Amino acid sequence: MPKIVILGAGTAGTMMANRLCESLRPEMENNECSITVVDQNREHVYQPGLLFIPFGVYKDRHDLVKPRENFLPREAEFIVSPIQRVDPEKNKVHLEKGELQYDLLIVASGGNIDPSEQEGLMGKHWQKSIFDFYTIDGATKLQKAMRNFQGGNVVLNVAEMPIKCPVAPPEFVMMADWYFQERGLRDKVKIFFATPLDGPFTKPIASKTLQHVCNEKGIEVVPEFALSHVDNEQQRIVSYDGREVDFDLLVSIPTTKGASYLEESGLGDELNWVPTHNNTLQSKEFDNIFILGDATNVPTSKAGSVAHFQSEILVQNVLRWLDGLEPLPDFDGHSNCFIESGFDKALLIDFNYTQEPLPGRFPLPGIGPFTLLRETNMNHYGKMMFRWAYWHLLLLGKDLPVSPYMSMAGKYHP
Question: What are the boundaries of each domain within the chain?
Answer without folding.
Answer: 3-49+66-110+259-322, 115-256, 335-394
